[in-house]
């Protein structure tokens, strides 16, 4: 049936297009841009549609539509669209796959277009935020969201277990991983709730453990990305400690257990601040938001990033880049900052953020958001990330059992992922 | 010469031609569907398998047999094929024996037997993903099954997180999902066995087991062949259960061929190599089906 429609519409187009080209010029100029995103949040969509409407005022022929794709399969769906010859004009890109997109040549360069846009003030966008999205001095995607990882605390559970609340530990200068695990263990020992959850980790998305192991100075591969670093001392120590917290202390729920912090079932969770929207409105608990504890190397911060890029070599690439310049200009960046922590230095202050994040206190914004963004390391990413992620995940599975030999497992992880990294 | 002129004067639309044309017209809708959705994609997949297709860089280069050489050298492939074989063998054995057992048990004239037949058939009509998601909750370490076991003082394994139990879990979830279909086919076959054969056997002094072995099994053997082909081909195409329950883990213990193909093509973006893997799958299914048809001549009994 579809094919009949296709044929019919192709035939119709065959008649109409030459007609339009000869007589009615506006039909030829009409541009429809499509941007794939992974948020289906009504408020987010309303804001994006408002920005698109603003662009239409100066470009009446351009219509932008936003296409939400579920987060779990986002990159897979996006690449399948590209493979099927139906790529979007613009797309959100995850930090982990940034290298794939930036290095592939699939995206249009942005720096010159942004610099040429009046009032854009490219200098204001911090270099730290753009590093991941830049190749050979050209920006290929704009980091519209730089969101620090932090710990949400359920103080009701912590107090009930007679443990020391993180806020108190921070006040005493004792907010370390050892004490954080102790608090988590105390709550878990009570048997009413679990201790600490690394949200979305699920013993699969191992890169989220960077929110812990960065405190040991660990990283999965060398700085140039060519050598496996899972067997380096910091990583072995960090994962040994995490393994101990899970299996010996019971401070973290084990594999195959689904526990939700926001349903009130755990003392603490590591996640990004945008998850504050999940805090229960009915029957709320006494919650707190604190920065990540100090690890053996001292204080540290980890951020997740999301970029937005325009695909190159498309009929409307130029208009898409223009829209991107409009969407991320100083004025619209302020709108975006309601939901997505900004990459512009001028917006990174407690006053601006307070206006848009009513749930968070000035102190939380200062210690978690601003400090996190200005000092944070981005989650690990790599070219060919999907295959590397899967290979490491598959190797690490052997570690998520009580009597695992952590160094031996990590050696086998490096054995299998080493050749992929060296490529 | 005269014959030729005679032929020329004959009308083109003979009765035979009319019938043939009508026949082709009747099968046309199905045939067009198969050509567009099966044969053309099959040809394209073969064509893709000769190329290196980088989706992001938008490059599509002819590489000849390189993907096939990669297939032979792929260090993961033995593991994947072993997992597929274990899954298929476990599924076929468990599914067919359970289906036959249920069919024999339900082939009785008892009050309310229809309720049981419906009960066992109902999973077949449940959405596959919904069915699997419910099972994923039951199979969690702190899920329903271990909760039930702990009520009896048994500490259950972490089903989906230990290689052996993970494989058993995906097989059992799949068996429970589809056993009803084979059960119905067996039930129909059982009811087609002439009752007088059993009477004759009884008169000759054959016991229940002997009757089953000598009469029932031979007479339903065409159905056993049919169900085993359907089940084996279906088992090689298992995807949703793996994707929902284990994502191929732990390690690669439940990464069956179709899931591996999906990873290579859609997650790692190696569409060329993914196509090569699907050609491999096609060959495996073709060979197995052919072998089963051959086997038919030797083990399947036809009444006439």
UniProtKB/TrEMBL annotation, chain A:
Keywords from the named record: Periplasm, Signal
Record keyword Signal present: yes
GO (cellular component) term, any one: periplasmic space
Database matches in CDD domains: PBP2_TMBP_like (cd13585)
SUPFAM superfamilies assigned to the protein according to its UniProt record, in alphabetical order: Periplasmic binding protein-like II (SSF53850)
Principal localisation: periplasm
Signal sequence bounds: 1-27
This protein's record includes keyword S-adenosyl-L-methionine: no
Compartments (UniProt record): Periplasm
InterPro entries, sorted: Bact_solute-bd_prot1, SBP
Family label: Belongs to the bacterial solute-binding protein 1 family.
Name assigned to this protein: Sugar ABC transporter substrate-binding protein
Taxon lineage: Bacteria, Pseudomonadati, Pseudomonadota, Alphaproteobacteria, Hyphomicrobiales
TrEMBL record, chain B:
Keywords: Cell membrane, Membrane, Transmembrane, Transmembrane helix, Transport
One cellular component term from this protein's GO annotations in UniProt: plasma membrane
Domain of life assignment: Bacteria
Pfam families reported for this sequence: BPD_transp_1
Transmembrane segment boundaries: 21-48, 80-106, 118-138, 166-190, 219-246, 266-291
Gene Ontology BP terms: transmembrane transport
Predominant place of localization: membrane
Claim: Cell membrane is one of the keywords in the record: yes
Keyword Membrane: yes
Locations listed in the record: Cell membrane
Boundaries of every ABC transmembrane type-1 domain copy: 81-292
Membrane topology listed for this record: Multi-pass membrane protein
Family from the record: Belongs to the binding-protein-dependent transport system permease family.
Protein name: Sugar ABC transporter permease
């Amino acid at each position: 049936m579809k094919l009949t429609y296709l044929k019919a519409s192709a035939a119709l187009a065959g008649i109409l297009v030459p007609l339009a080209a000869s007589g009615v010029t506006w039909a030829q100029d009409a541009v429809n841009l499509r941007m794939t995103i992974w948020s289906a949040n009504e408020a987010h969509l309303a804001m994006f549609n408002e920005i698109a409407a603003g662009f239409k005022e100066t470009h009446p022929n351009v219509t932008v539509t936003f296409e939400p794709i579920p987060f779990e399969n986002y990159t897979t769906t996006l690449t399948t669209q590209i493979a099927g010859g139906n790529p979007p004009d613009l797309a959100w890109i995850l930090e982990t796959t940034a290298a794939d997109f930036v290095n592939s040549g699939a995206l249009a360069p942005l720096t010159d277009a942004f610099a040429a846009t009046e009032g854009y003030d490219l200098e204001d966008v911090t270099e730290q935020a753009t590093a991941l999205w830049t190749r050979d001095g050209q920006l290929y995607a704009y980091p519209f969201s730089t969101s620090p990882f932090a710990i949400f605390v359920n103080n009701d559970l912590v107090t009930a277990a007679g443990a020391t609340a993180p806020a108190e530990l921070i006040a005493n200068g004792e907010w370390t991983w050892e004490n954080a695990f102790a608090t988590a263990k105390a709550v878990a020992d009570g048997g009413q709730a679990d201790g600490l959850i690394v949200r979305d980790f699920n013993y699969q998305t191992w890169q989220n453990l960077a929110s812990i192991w960065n405190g040991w100075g660990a990283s999965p591969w060398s700085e140039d990305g060519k050598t496996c670093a899972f067997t380096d001392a910091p990583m072995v120590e960090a994962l040994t400690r995490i393994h101990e917290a899970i299996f010996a202390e019971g401070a973290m729920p084990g594999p195959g257990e689904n526990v939700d912090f926001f349903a009130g079932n755990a003392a603490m969770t590591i996640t990004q601040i945008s998850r504050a929207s999940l805090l229960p409105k009915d029957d709320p608990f006494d919650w707190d938001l604190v920065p990540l504890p100090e690890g053996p190397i001292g204080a540290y911060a980890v951020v997740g990033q999301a970029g937005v890029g325009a695909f190159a070599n498309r009929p409307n690439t130029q208009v898409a880049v223009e829209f991107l310049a409009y969407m991320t200009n100083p004025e619209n960046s302020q709108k975006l900052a309601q939901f997505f922590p900004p990459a512009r230095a001028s917006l990174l202050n407690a006053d601006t953020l307070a206006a848009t994040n009513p749930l968070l206190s000035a102190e939380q914004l200062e210690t978690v958001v601003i400090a996190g963004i200005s000092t944070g390391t981005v989650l690990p990413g790599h070219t060919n990330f999907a295959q590397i992620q899967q290979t490491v995940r598959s190797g690490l599975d052997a570690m998520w059992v009580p009597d695992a030999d952590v160094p031996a497992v990590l050696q086998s992880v490096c054995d299998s992922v080493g050749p992929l990294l060296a490529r | 010469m005269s014959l030729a002129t005679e032929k020329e004067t004959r009308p083109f639309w003979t009765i035979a031609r009319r019938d043939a044309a009508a026949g082709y017209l009747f099968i046309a809708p199905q045939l067009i569907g198969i050509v567009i959705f099966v044969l053309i994609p099959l040809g394209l997949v073969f064509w893709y398998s000769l190329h290196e297709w980088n989706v992001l860089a938008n490059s599509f280069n002819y590489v000849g047999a390189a993907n096939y050489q990669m297939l032979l050298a792929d260090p993961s492939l033995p593991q994947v094929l072993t997992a597929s074989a274990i899954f298929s063998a476990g599924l076929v054995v468990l599914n067919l024996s359970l289906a036959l057992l249920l069919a024999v048990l339900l082939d009785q004239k008892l009050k309310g037997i229809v309720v049981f037949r419906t009960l066992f058939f109902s999973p077949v009509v449940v959405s596959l993903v919904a069915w699997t998601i419910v099972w994923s909750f039951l199979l969690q370490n702190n899920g329903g099954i271990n909760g039930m076991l702990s009520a009896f003082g048994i500490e259950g394994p972490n089903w989906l997180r230990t290689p052996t139990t993970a494989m058993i879990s995906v097989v059992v979830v799949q068996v429970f999902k589809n056993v009803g279909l084979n059960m119905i086919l067996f039930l129909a076959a059982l009811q087609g066995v002439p009752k007088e054969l059993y009477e004759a056997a009884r008169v000759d002094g054959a016991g229940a087991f002997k009757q089953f072995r000598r009469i029932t099994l031979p007479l339903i053997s065409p159905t056993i062949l049919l169900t085993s082909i359907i089940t084996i081909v279906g088992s090689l195409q298992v995807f949703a259960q793996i994707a929902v329950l284990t994502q191929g883990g732990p390690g690669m213990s439940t990464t069956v061929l179709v899931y591996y193909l999906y990873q290579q093509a859609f997650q790692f973006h190696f569409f060329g190599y993914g196509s090569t893997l699907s050609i491999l799958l096609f060959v495996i299914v073709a060979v197995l089906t052919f072998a089963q048809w051959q086997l038919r001549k030797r083990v399947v009994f036809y009444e006439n």
